[in-house]
Design goal:
The chain contains two helices and two strands. The chain has a two-stranded parallel ribbon. Helices cover about 35% and strands about 15% of the residues. The chain has one domain. It is of the alpha+beta class.
Length: about 70
């Protein structure tokens, strides 16, 4: 993430499953902490790499609605 800093701008949302063996929580939090912009993190305590599935889609839509002032 640090290498991408000059290219990454704007708000960011990070979603992670705390049981994820593909992208362990430590890497998700590392990327989140390295991001300098405005950011939000949502964690799913009992989920793996699939994230929050339907719940995550609702969180994404709510985040985007807030970002664009819709709804």
């Amino acid at each position: 993430m640090r290498q991408l800093r000059p290219a990454v701008q704007g708000n960011g949302a990070v979603f992670g499953g705390l049981m994820d063996e593909v992208c362990p929580p430590s890497t998700v939090y590392g990327a989140f902490n390295a991001y300098d912009g405005e950011k939000t993190i949502v964690q799913y305590e009992f989920n793996n790499h699939e994230g929050g599935q339907g719940y995550q889609e609702r969180e994404q839509m709510a985040w985007l609605s807030g970002l664009f002032g819709v709804g």
